[in-house]
Design goal:
The chain has five helices and twelve strands. The chain is an alpha+beta fold.
């Protein structure tokens, strides 16, 4: 029930930027996600960098399963995502704020859906526009200071499960549409360009 929801700051139920990579760790390779390579939870590319190759100076933030990455620059561009299954030795840009739920207080997927709602994105954009940077930028403390309403943990998980199932169906439909479009283009080319029988 909604009356059981409690008010809190996001910083009460999550921590930001918990783990940083040091070059002293000398990983044999790095799987690097930059801010421009994820939009609304969809990853468009990850760069594999082997030992000995130059590592981008921003490749420093470590992620664990179900960490949220949220670009600190121009929130309105929606460069964010939930890293459900990070790749081995994965690092993300310091242009992201990495948000890790305190598992005894909050469900990661619930927080992800909370942080990606239009009113929250718009609020963070306004905060960014009032920053001292040359472009709209937010700080981890801006995310930690967000006021939110949270239901009990079992209810958070139930809500996140329903929303996640809907997202999965939307993604499946998108993939099916892309396949059908490719088939239609191939048939069109075959019949009207190549004049196949």
């Amino acid at each position: 029930m909604a009356h059981e929801w409690t008010s809190c700051r996001l910083g009460d139920v999550a921590i930001t930027n918990p783990d940083t990579y040091s070059t002293k760790e000398n990983w044999p390779f790095v799987e690097y996600l930059d801010t421009g390579n994820i939009t609304r939870g969809t990853v468009s590319g990850i760069q594999k960098i082997n030992r000995g190759e130059p590592l981008p100076s921003r490749a420093r933030r470590k992620v664990l399963p179900y960490d949220i990455v949220y670009s600190s620059v121009r929130p309105i561009n929606r460069h964010y995502g939930l890293i459900s299954n990070p790749l081995p030795r994965m690092l993300v840009s310091t242009g992201f704020v990495v948000i890790r739920a305190k598992r005894d207080r909050a469900d990661s997927r619930f927080l992800y859906y909370l942080l990606t709602q239009d009113p929250v994105v718009n609020t963070l954009q306004v905060i960014g526009e009032h920053s001292t940077s040359a472009y709209p930028a937010i700080k981890p403390s801006d995310i930690e200071s967000l006021e939110c309403q949270l239901p009990p943990l079992p209810e958070q998980k139930a809500i996140a499960h329903v929303l996640g199932s809907l997202d999965d169906k939307i993604e499946l439909n998108r993939q099916m549409n892309a396949t059908l479009e490719a088939m239609a283009q191939a048939l069109f080319k075959s019949w009207f360009v190549d004049f196949d029988p």
